[in-house]
Amino acid sequence: MNVEGTPKFSVNRKDVYRPQVGGGWPVIGYWAKNTFSPQGLRLWQKLFHHHACKSCSWGTTAFTNELGQPLQRCMKGLEAEKGDIQKGIDRDFFSRHPLEELQLLSSYQAERLGRFSYPVILRAGSDRYEPIEWRELYAIAQKAFEYPASQLASYSSGRSSNEAAFTLQLMMRTLGSENLADCSDLCHVPSTRALGRMFGTNTSVVELADLHKADCFVMIGSNAPANSPRLMNELKDLRARGGRILIINPVVEIGLVKFASPADLQSLVFGSDIASLYVQPNPGSDAALFLGIQKWLIEHQRVDYRYLKTHTVGWESVVQHARSLDWPTINEICGVSIDEIAMAAQMIADAERVIFGWSMGLTQHANGVDNVMTVVNTALLTGNVAKEGAGCMPIRGHSNVQGFGSMGVTSELKETIRQALEKLLGRSLSRTPGYNTRKLIRACDAGKVSSLLCLGGNLYAANPDREQARRALNRVETIIYLSTKPNIGHFHGLAANQTIIVPVLARDEQTFITTVESGNNFVRHNQPGSTHLDRSYVLSEIEFLTNLAAMVLGSEPINWRRMRAPEYIRQLIAMVIPGYGQIASIGSTGKDFTIEGRILHGGVFPTATGKATMFVTHLPELNVPSSDVMDATVPDHAQPFVLITVRSYSQHNTVVYKQGDEYRAMPHRNCLMMHPKDAAQSGLKEHDRVVVQGQAGKLSEVEVIFGDIKMGSILMFYPETNAIIRPEEDPQSDIPAFKRNPVLVYSSKEFATI
Ligand SMILES: Nc1nc2c(c(=O)[nH]1)N[C@H]1C(S)=C(S)[C@@H](COP(=O)(O)OP(=O)(O)OC[C@H]3O[C@@H](n4cnc5c(=O)[nH]c(N)nc54)[C@H](O)[C@@H]3O)O[C@H]1N2
Ligand SMILES: Nc1nc2c(c(=O)[nH]1)N[C@H]1C(S)=C(S)[C@@H](COP(=O)(O)OP(=O)(O)OC[C@H]3O[C@@H](n4cnc5c(=O)[nH]c(N)nc54)[C@H](O)[C@@H]3O)O[C@H]1N2
Ligand code: SF4
Ligand SMILES: [Mo]
User: Beta-carbon neighbour count of residue 675 at 10 Å?
Assistant: First the structure.
């Protein structure tokens, strides 16, 4: 399979530009180009409108952060707004373009079709979507959701509001279904599991103010310069006041070495140092590296035993286990020298207040939960949790993905929320976990799901093994997509009987106030706003969900018509969701707030014992890629590699804004990053074209680009790579190992360089 946008091969690009700093002038250039364009005025209006940024979960309202500091808006927020002010899709667009044609579109092209601006349906046997009247649409939806609860499911991505999320889960649970799959199942679920078990709270235990007090930050498996850019400001400041930063990443991401912050003139001109030490472990080996760090701390009497005895349980076996490991094994698994492990450990031990932050490089592994627990154990061994300026911080994804979790959009609900819901509904709810995202795909594939409602997202392209995803969705009878904009999922993730697309308003276009929760546990409100779309054809998510629920469930025990008013939903949230009491008045006071009980400063953990629970974690068994696991014949010269799949600089998950990644010097999407020495050993030169064979398929004409990546690994972009991978899954969380896929790479001779 080829990726659209691959330049013709005769171009010999010896002149690939490799930037020496992240952020910087290209960002300013992007702002200038877009905000001075014909749509500039509209963009400025959107940027100044009072709503939480639609991009990442760092959280910014207009240009201000939760501490009231100005200039806190990066270009990612601009990218997201730009997508939403696109024109509505023409009324006759789908009659002119059969699916066959739309299925050829790339993610980049699908996003550019414009906003969904009227409801459409694809009927069985038809070759194209067609407009549908609301009355018929609701009748079909009602029938679909009258199936037995075990055959109903939802999928969501954290782009919608807390109010929509709460309504979705309440509707599904009132129907009797726990099948609430969510994009976090592919993302931070290992963090949620590990923190829940260890701290009794599932989210970050630090707040923004803690970052201002820390003197060391350990960043594991995050490309924050692209994916949480304003966090880089905090890191730059931490370095500037004499603190130290330890980066752990198999790939040298240039913005983690040096970052030029557009919000600070001196930094913009000269660049700011970020990494004090940059450690490059093998992909998937972080648990080994951190066990090594623990062993060093133990052997050098740098463990805070007083803290362990007072604030933790289970530490004895953790210490004993780490002590018992042998250095050569640790070293062999993580590929980091003992000297370097010692430097990393010493940096942590020497600091007063350390924050450990992590993202997908830590979680998306076959041992994702163990990975997170090993990092958290290290934080506890050094007494760095539940005090000001220190703690553990998953760097979350979508702008409201954490809010979705808080609202109970999960296949495994917290007992406290379940009990509150049971009180509300006046009956007991099932305690059997529902389908998470991977289980949902398998259940669909097995024909066990009749009706599926997708609140945003791109279930088809976000999952690995694209053929399986397509086949699975093709077996569902009815799929209803509530979406703002088209993505390839709308053209490939099609149901057997009918696929419906309900166009919805974005968070700044609603006629009422809504809220979202940031990764720092801060709840922001979004003010009502205008839309360029016709409101008689485009709905709020809440309106659609409450209408559907009212039709299927009547008005007892929940008055769904009353729930059309988000003010009332917020009263219910305040009653049901722990720490969310203040949401009840946010509509009238406009007072954003930090969720109670989440930030740990006083040495007490919200567990039964009041202490953190530590668990022994294990060295990962990293399987080496080999041709045996490929269901394909490959030439003898094919070389095994570990494939890391990531986001490029200009994309938001499956939504691609720009083809290349200027910071990694990758000019288009069909590139791979390889270490020059690996290339030499494989007989490859930079710009050669290769085939990358995964367990579920192959990509051809992939251009080799050199980069500073751990030897034995290559890096490519998702979602394209989901066509070829079939990753292992973590038995503790079912998350796919998106960061460690076995592949074989071989040159495509017919496309040899000139
Ligand atoms: N602009 C923008 N912002 C986004 C998103 C977006 O697509 N675009 N997506 C949002 C979402 S949903 C999420 S979840 C976050 C994702 O944010 P990130 O986690 O930063 O996203 P990835 O691109 O997956 O990059 C993961 C990083 O982990 C490194 N890595 C890979 N394997 C390993 C490993 O085994 N160990 C370690 N230590 N590191 C490893 C990679 O080299 C890469 O630098 O960003 C959110 N913000
Ligand atoms: N190989 C590989 N696969 C991965 C990953 C990886 O690193 N590697 N990362 C995984 C991760 S971390 C995640 S979070 C998932 C992401 O998976 P998803 O969340 O499923 O995917 P997105 O691309 O974020 O979904 C984008 C779509 O959401 C819709 N949308 C946008 N805004 C709104 C809104 O306000 N309301 C509604 N209703 N719809 C809206 C639009 O139609 C848009 O096209 O992908 C996962 N898949
Ligand atoms: S850091 Fe995240 S929340 Fe803040 S402006 Fe950038 S994309 Fe938006
Ligand atoms: Mo994510």
Answer: 19
Per-residue pLDDT tens over the stretch 145-164: 999 999 999 999 999 999 99
Q: Tell me the CA distances in angstroms from 645 to 513, 713, 723, one per residue in order.
A: 37, 11, 12
Ligand 4 centroid distance, CA of 404 (Å): 12
Residue 616 to residue 340: CA distance in whole angstroms: 23
Selection from 571, 572, 593 nearest residue 584 by Cα: 571
Residue length of the chain: 754
Q: Which ligand is nearest to the CA of 55?
A: 3
Tell me how far apart the alpha carbons of residues 224 and 316 are, in angstroms, rounded to a whole number.
35
The list of the chain residues with pLDDT below 70 reads: 1-16, 627, 629, 631, 749-754
Exposure string of 289-320, with b = 16+ CB inside 10 Å and e = fewer, is bbbbbbbbbbeeeebbeebbeebbbbbeebbe
List, chain by chain if needed, residues with CB within 6 Å of any ligand 2 atom: 157, 159-160, 183, 186-187, 360, 364, 397-398, 455-459, 462, 464, 482-485, 487, 504, 506-507, 541, 645-646, 653-655, 718, 721-722, 738
State the distance from the centre of ligand 2 to the C-alpha of 653, rounded, in angstroms: 5
DSSP letter assigned to residue 670:
S
User: What CA–CA distance (Å, rounded) separates 152 from 146?
Assistant: 9
Predicted confidence at residue 6, as pLDDT, reads 43
Helix (H) / strand (E) element for 376: namely: helix 368-381
User: Which uninterrupted H or E stretch holds 218?
Assistant: strand 216-220
Tell me how far CA of residue 357 lies from CA of 218, 388, 520, 649, 728, in angstroms: 6, 15, 12, 20, 24
DSSP 149: G
Helices assigned H by DSSP within 527-593 = 541-553, 566-576, 586-589
